[in-house]
UniProtKB/TrEMBL annotation, chains A, B:
This is MarR family transcriptional regulator. Keywords: DNA-binding, Transcription, Transcription regulation. InterPro entries: ArsR-like_HTH, HTH_HxlR, WH-like_DNA-bd_sf, WH_DNA-bd_sf. SUPFAM superfamilies: Winged helix' DNA-binding domain. PROSITE patterns: HTH_HXLR. The lineage of its organism: Bacteria, Bacillati, Bacillota, Bacilli, Bacillales. Residues 11-109 form the HTH hxlR-type domain.
Length: 110, 110
DNA sequence: CGGGATCCGAGAAGATACTG
DNA sequence: CAGTATCTTCTCGGATCCCG
């Protein structure tokens, strides 16, 4: 606010990018957009993410208010992740990005 | 294509994120959406980007077909950056992200 | 089962100096 | 003016081991 270059960091675009800029964030959100998922389900869906990374990204998404984490006190433990209202509101943007990518990025390019 | 986990890397969302995932990419695109800009203009607009980083990000955006680079053979040299048709097509998504951020991310949070 | 804690390498990002 | 070339720093993401 004091420095006049802060219009960059205060730009909504910058904030959004910081939140969903993680390597796996948007695909996780995309996956959760079809319904709540258990930790193991997500992990099996994205085998290339390590548990540690998956936990980290989910926690960050939780802190940013995109994802809700529900712990069921059972044996064995069970944890479900779902989108919050904020997260749901972001899905249309993901969808438009998805559609845009399909149209403008040739599958076999690069 | 061979491994069944490639649906992740082949996901349009993943591709889009790779392209605009750079720290400054989307704000640069956002800035260019108002019209062609010279290198020096961009640099002065974002003083926190080093020349090297700015050059790199612009070249990557150029390689990905989002930005057009026009070199004028003058003394002193002059280089103008502008959005390609693809880049222009992406602007509405930036705009929706911008609007979404304004609504859902409180200015004073965190 | 769903993590936490720690260590580590690669690549992103920053600082600085030089050039056509 | 608009870069290039290094060098350094730092953050992200990955691997591994341990825990309730």
């Amino acid at each position: 606010m004091s420095k006049n270059t802060d219009f960059v960091t205060s730009c909504p675009l910058t904030k959004v990018q910081k939140i969903v800029g993680g390597k796996w964030k948007i695909v996780i959100l995309w996956y959760l957009s079809v319904g709540p998922k258990r930790f193991g389900q997500i992990k099996r869906t994205f085998p290339d993410i390590t548990q540690a990374m998956l936990t980290k990204q989910l926690r960050e998404l939780e802190e940013d208010g995109f994802v809700h984490r529900e712990v069921f006190k059972e044996i064995p433990p069970r944890v479900e992740y779902s989108l919050t209202a904020t997260g749901e509101n972001f899905v249309p943007i993901l969808r438009s990005m998805y559609d845009w990518g399909e149209v403008h990025l040739a599958p076999a390019e690069q």
